[in-house]
Each structure stands twice: as C-alpha cells, then as structure tokens.
Amino acid sequence: MEQRRHLNDTRAGAGLITGSVFLVATSDALIKLGSAQFTVWQLYVIRSTIAIALLLLWLCLSQRSTTGLQLTWDRWTLLRSAALTLMWIAFYAALPHVSLSLAALALYTAPLFIALLSAKVLREQVNPRRWMAIALGFLGVLLILRPTAEHFSAMSLLPVLAALLYAVAAVVTRTRCASHCALSLALNLNLCLCLVGALVLLGHRLQSPSSEPVHEGFLAPHWVSLGPAQWGLLSVLAVLMVLMSVGVAKAYQLGPSTIVGTFDYSYLLFAMFWGFALFNEVPDAIMIVGMGLIAASGVWVLRG
C-alpha cells in the first residue's frame, strides 16, 4: 500500500510539474507577445496586485486562518525577493530581443549555477560526475549563445544572468528560508515586485510630470495607456502566475526532486512550441544540440 501511494505521488508530481511548466512557458510567451503594448513596470504592479488578491482569496476559500500567516521581512527573505525581482527584470528585458527558445535554454542553466554556488559558497561536496555535468551544460550554453562577432548578442547574456540570480534565490530559499511558509514567501515576493514597479513608475512621474507617456520599449520607466485587451492579458498573466507558482511548489512536495526536476525540463519543449506557434521561431541544429546538452547536464546534476 505504501509503495503504491509513493508511486501515485511520484506520478502526480511529474504530471503537476509538467502542467505547471507549460503554464510558465505560456506566460513567458504571452509576455513576449505583449511587450510592445505595456512596460515591465506596469506588468510588475498590475500582475502582482491581482496575484496578491488571488492568493489571499485562495487562502480564505481553503478555510485556513490568516492569523498564523506572518509576512517576515528578515534579510534573507528580502535577499530572496530581490534576487527573483532582478531575475525577472533580466529575463523579461531579453524577451523582446531574443528568441523564446534561446531565452528558455539560457534560463535553464540555473541548476548548474545552483550546483556551483552549493560547492563554492555552501562548501557542499560535488563529486567528479557533477563537475563533468556542469562542464557539459556550459558547453551547451556556448553552443546556443555562439559568442562570435557574427552571431553574438549582448541581450542573450541576460537570460544567463537571470539563471544566476534564480540560483542565488534557490540557495537562499533552501538554506535560510526553508522554515518559512510558502504562501508567505509568495506574498512577500509579489509585494516586492509591486513595490519596485510602483517606485520606478512614481520616480519617473515625479521627475517628468508633464511628459506625455509614449511606449519607448519594455523597460521604459513610465505608465502607458492600456486598453481592455491589455488589462485582460495582464489579468490572465496574474492567474497564470498564481497557478504555476502553487503547482511547482506542490509538485516538489509530492514527488522525489530528482524525478520532478527531470520533468521540469519539459519547459524547454513548451517554449520551443510557443516560439514556433506565435513567433515563427525555428531552432537550428546547433541550438537543438545545445538544448540536449543543457537538459542532459541538468538531469545529471539533479541525479548526482
């Protein structure tokens, strides 16, 4: 009976992570699609405000008391939220300029950075097989980024920076925030995102009170007029953020991290699908080889 329940939990975890990363890929594709219609700071403010309301509503509907929910603002929680906020700035800034497939591949080097940080900062033992996997993964990164004068774009480094920042947040979460309530961490993060977006927008407004808001790019520090379609898209993105964050957390609670982490890499396939379906992006042979190396090295690192 115990073995059957473990098998069911493993299958549920694998299915849940696959569905969750599909939502992540869908969200990233929609943000890339809408990046010409709003700014990243508007995305932060509107999406996070709606997400906070949905998270609190979810808590009430689940009939759990909010009295035990503490929004801790210790330095480690702030560091985690800051790292994730910067991660999304870097990743979203790259989306209008690089293919969704390339951004996804670069972002999924995060397990390699986690292994490196664990070895160098936490002094955890990393066996030779994992070092080989890390080297293999960074070979895959070189293949997809192609750091030559002909192919290289500085924007392609932003998803790699995002992966490093995600790794910092992951290590902080595991070592310093393990006892924190997951819902509390989610609310703290969304409050941080909303605050950063609001400060940037307010700062620009105070500095240029009479300027006419014109969309000058995804990172433009001002509020642009939104129509019903843009408000609808941002609302959908908020719902996706809540579902995918809860789904990923639950998946890793249900199944073994090595198995769930392996299925996590299905994000790369979904990102390639949306890249082709929405943006007519067709990865070439070199990018596919790079994807294979990154995915294989990530699974190798996870399985130790």
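(the above was protein one; protein two follows)
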Amino acid sequence: MTGGGIANILHRETLAMIVGSKTFERGEQCFTTGRVLGVESGPGELCGVVRPQDRTRAPYEVRIWVRDDGLAYQCTCPIGEARQFCKHAVAIALAHLEREAQRGERELAALRTQLMNVSMAALLDGLVQHARVDRDLLDALKRICERAQR
C-alpha cells in the first residue's frame, strides 16, 4: 500500500499479537480457503468483503484503518459489531499482505529486466552515487565485493 501509515503497522506478527493466536489462525484459514472475495487499499485503509461459511448469509464487509493510537477496524459480522478484531478482518489483512508481496516481486522482476539494458558503467556510477548518501547500500555493496573476492 502506498499511502498512509497502514503499511508501517500491518505485518503478520503485529496482527497475530493484536488479535491473539486463535483469531489469527481462524482468519488465516478464512484467507487460505478462498473466502476473501475482494480487498481494496487506499491511503491509510483497507476495505474488503469476506464470504461467510454459511453461504446463505450475506458477505461480511470489513474495513481496517489507521488511527493515532494504532489500527481501527469494522466488520459487519457479530464479532465485528461487538467492536472486536474478527477473523474476517485478519483474512482481509492477510489478503492485502499477500497482494503487496506479489506486487513487490513483480516490480523487482521488471526492474531486473530493465537493468539488463543499462550499461555496466552507468549502473556502477548510479550505485556509487547512491552509496554516498545511503550507508546501508554502501555496506551491502562492500559485502558483495568481499564475497566475490573469496
């Protein structure tokens, strides 16, 4: 997600800590069995729809957003209406995290293809220029050089 602070807060570990292991496991099962019908992200929020186990019931609508004190959530299921973080909210969050991970992998694959068309000199100049201001990049480049010398 590009906007808001949700990407900085929403991680599997954080989610499991917030909701507890039982709700997390139930939400994970809800996600892995394909009950998430859709998830949309916007600045600082996620919205999604989850199919209930009982297919005769209407899908649950879920919203997760960032507040000053952390995450807020809403779901149309009975647990969500009681203002508790439910398995449906967990499922929506997990669907979002997976989608973002897949998007990141696609972006890296595309970048790799584009870099193949850049001259070695231009690539090295760019890396050195950025390493001047990015200590982590400088350290990573040093480690790559050390491994190559072994």
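Reviewer note on protein two: The helical segments are 6-9, 12-19, 21-32, 78-81, 87-115, 120-131, 135-149.
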